[in-house]
Amino acid sequence: MPFVEKVKSAFGRGEVNPDAQIAAAHAAGGSDRAGAVQANARRYEKLWEAYQNLGEIIQVRNQEIADANQRIRNIKDQHQQTLASLQSYHDQEVTQLNENLRKREEESDQAIYQARSDHRQEVDRLKQKHGTDRADLIQHHTEVVDRMKRQHEQETQSLDKNVRELKGALLKRDDGVYQAKVFTPSGIPNKPDDKIRSQFSEVQQIVDNLSRMSWKPDQSVWNGELLETISVRHGQRLVCKVILQDLIWYVLPEATDHLAIQDSPEPSSNESYNWPAPGIKAERWRYFTMKECREILPQKALSAYDRRGLLKTGFITSVESLATEMRSELSNVADFTDSHQQLVKSLSVEAATTWLDFETYRCRIMVRLTGSAISSAEEKVAQAKEGMLTFTRLPSVGRYGTVEGVELENFTTINGCGGETLTVP
């Protein structure tokens, strides 16, 4: 039991009487014991007074607690009233805002509807105006075009008339000159076979040098496995060189289709090759136009008013086109360097110049590709995989007619120019 409770219990039962305890202590044992009892008695009295004061304090605190609880209840009541008032105000504001929102939505819908209606009306008006303006422009354009066509036709008719008159005069003059030259032996180039063979050998030599390019190892057309298969009889190095030679000889007629190169077997008649039938116009083109083109090539510059400038420009364009095509094809299968670029340029110029010379001789010279007629690399690869494939190492060179230009229906292969082929595998 706590000490305070013991004190309370003792005083409450009347057990604590200080005077009686002091007297009992004196009687029992002397003054020391009586002093101790007296001190304890005084302490009990103080404790009793403290207990009584504590009761009063507890009563005050209980009253304060009761007052605080009352104030809390009052605050809660006031808070409930304020909350109810705010909730009511909030509900009224929400209702008002919803009403305002509904009105604004109605106004917005009405404004959108009106804007769309105005837009449709404006679009219809613009469409109508556009249609009217377009019809007016078409009519005006048609009138202008018709007027320009009539004017152009009149000018064209006038120019055609002038051209016909000038051509007639020119042809009349040229026919006299042509007939004099054609039927005069000294007026037409007369080249023997050894001259033709020597001239073409220069082209062959450049092709041979160009075909010694290093083979590109990572190219996809003639891959390593296929080369090993088709190189069993001849060796891979030779086969790679022949493939390049064949490619070059096939690029030449494709890039210069106006030249006398043929990739089909020997024809049985004049109708099978690309030389025109002999006549005044064809021979004039050979002996005058081609000769004139050949003569102006060495000239450094021509007057802007010299009509022969177009011939030289056309020749240069053809040579550049041939060089570009050759470079593109070779770079697909071989390592192309600057030195090869110079060889390609030399080949293009030499081949085109040689062809021009061939076209002005009395006989009609043909260069025939003796290998397979297939020009596509992919088709050649497919044929090589399926069976035999023949490559053109050297084309054959022949002539229709004699060196004097007679018997043009007869074809003769020039000695030493029979051509060479290589068949794989």
Widest β-sheet, arrangement of strands: 1-2-4-5
The main pleated sheet reads as: 4 strands, mixed
- Beta-strand segment tally: 6
Mean pLDDT: 78
The stretches of 5 or more residues where confidence is low (pLDDT under 50) are 255-273
Helix content: 55-70%
Q: List SSEs in N-to-C order.
A: HHHHHHEHHHEHEEEE
How far apart lie the N and C ends? 125 Å
Q: What share of residues are in beta strands?
A: 5-15%
Radius of gyration: 61 Å
Q: Multimeric state of these chains?
A: single chain
What report would you give on this structure?
There is one protein chain. The chain is of the alpha+beta class. It has a domain at 192-424. The protein is 68% helix and 6% strand. It has ten helices and six strands. It has helices spanning 3-13, 18-29, 31-182, 193-210, 224-230, 236-255, 280-296, 309-331, 338-358, 377-386, and strands at residues 261-262, 364-368, 389-394, 396-400, 411-413, 420-424. The strands form two sheets. Strands 1-2-4-5 form a four-stranded mixed beta sheet, with no helix packed on it. Strands 3-6 form a two-stranded antiparallel ribbon. It is elongated and about 180 Å long. The N and C termini lie far apart (125 Å). Residues 58-85 form a coiled coil. Keywords: Coiled coil.
